[in-house]
Structures are given as structure tokens and as C-alpha cells.
Amino acid sequence: MADYIPALAGVDIGRFGMAVVDVDGGVYGVGDWEQPFSVQSISKAFSLALVLAEGGDRIWDRVGTEPSGNPFNSLVQLEYENGIPRNPFINAGALVVTDRLQSLTGDASTTMLEFLRAESGNPDVSFDPAVAASETEHGDRNAALAHFMASYGNLDNPVSTVLEHYFWQCSIEMSCRDLALASGFLARHGLRADGTRLLPRREAKQVNAVMLTCGTYDAAGDFAYRVGLPGKSGVGGGIVAVIPGRCTLCVWSPGLDARGNSVAGVAALDHFTTLTGWSVF
Length: 281
What we know:
Belongs to the glutaminase family. The protein is α+β, with helices and mostly antiparallel strands. It has twelve helices and seven strands.
């Protein structure tokens, strides 16, 4: 479990849930699939999609698309690369994306919350103030990353504003059902639940591609090898995965490996793709 975020430290690591939502709207679940949990870094996939939808591909001038090979909160790589994060899913990259979403919308965290409520069909999706406060109190490393990037001119908004919205969006609580529904636009090549287009097909492909190569911290290669799907994990124990043209999946189990990914979640997705034969390869 993510015991460095005290508000998450007490979650029962024996919990498990899994949901599958097909592109036609069929919803299937097992276990604790309707139990809300802290989405944490899964939110980064949605913030990236919203930035692409609102502002196009200019974000790629400020953040790369390569796997990092380092821990998700590492400062070392930023110094080598002059304040340009390696990808949008490490913490530094996610801070840049949040900064951009704040500039585009004026309220990054609320914009994301409203989007997730709409796509999941659940108006009760909400922030967890206790988790947000816990992350703020123990967010010195993220603050250091943000200040370092600001020193290179890679943040447009005040560091305090970017951190506030970043912590709030990570604190959002959703269930496996909610997350599998909300990520359906990635399986539908950019189409939202109501049939309108959020992203051009090309940009939906870009999000899926970066999820495949960078979505599970510095274990992305192993995840791609075992599971073979675009995926985004969070230290709350959730993993969202996408099979373009078929379905989205979300699995939740709070027991984490050393790299911050759900142990049972990765195993369940590995088993699912083995049984179904479904993958992007």
C-alpha cells in the first residue's frame, strides 16, 4: 500500500474488484467492483486526454513520450533534461499537464471531476478531502519537482496553484465500474459516451500508446510483456486497461509491488488476456 500517503495507509490490502465495459455499453463486474477508491495516478490519463482535447498537441513541446526507467517521483532525470519531463505519467510530467489544463480551463481539478462524472454516469464521483490534505502535507517531493520545472520556465501558473489542482485530482474517488466506463472513449477511438468526439482518432491512439509504454511507472516494459495492453496504474491500487475497439477494464487491489503497481491487479489482467486472447499485439 502507499503508506507514504497516510490517508491511504489503512486500506485493507485484501480487497479486490474488477470491471469490464464493452464498447456497446455492456458492464460486467466481480468482487469489490463498486467500492470507491482513490484513483491517484490513474487521473493522469484523463488530464492528458483533456489537455489534448482542449489545446491540441502543443503539450508535447513541454513533456516527452519516452519511458523514464526511473521512479515516478525522481528529480535526477529532470536535471539532466533541463526541466522537460520524460513523459506525462511520471509526477513531473503530470504536473506540467495539470499546469496546461489549468491554463486552458481556469480550474483543472473541477474540469476533470465534471468530465469523470459525465463519462461514468455517476454524479456522486467526488474528491476525498482527507486524501488531498494528506498529499499536500506530505508533498515535498512534488513541490520540489514543480519548483525545479518552474525555474526552467516549464510552468505557466504559480507552483502552489499547480500543486493544489494536482493533489485534488489525485484524490478523486471512483469504483472499478466508474473508471472502466469513464475510460471508454479510449476504446472507442476518441468518442465519448454520448457519441460526441473528445479526441481525434490519432490523439486517442497517442494516449493509448503512452499508456502502453509509460503507464505503469518503471515497470511498463514488464506490464507490456505480461498483459499486452495500454494501462495506467495508481498507488491507490487501481489499474485501468484498454483494448481498442473492444472494451475497457479496471481492476483494484491495494497491495502494491515495489514499483507502485497492484500485485493482484497485474495478475488479474494477465489472466484475463491469457484467457481471452485479447491484446493490442
